[in-house]
Amino acid sequence: MITKSIYESGSLVVACFGSVVTMPEIEEYFYWLVSNHGSNIEADYSQLIYSDGLEKVDIQVNDVHRISHLRATVGRNSRSSNLALVVPDLKYYWIAKLYKTLSKSSHINTRLFRDVDDAFTWLDFKNPLAV
Question: Staple partner for 12: which of 7, 38, 65, 113, CB 3.0–4.6 Å?
């Protein structure tokens, strides 16, 4: 399951991966970003993806390549953006690292973090999730 929120008048998108996340859900999230780009989401938005109660990411290496390909083709009209991936569980680090490598050609400035607050600091936003 992926929950998504828009903050800071469309300058910040926050997505939470929880329970089990599948490739169709990731594709739906990607198309949601594209369909909201320029209307609800600013052209040069920042994005943070983190997990809460994540049990499984059900994707393969080819799926990560597909996501990168979608970004480079369907998502090519978006300007460069910052993406903070919060990966506290090292078993998912390889997915995040592969995506980071593949996203370089799409002008996505991607950084990996272990802590949500560090990720928000790097993006230069206050943590809207903090209580």
Answer: 7
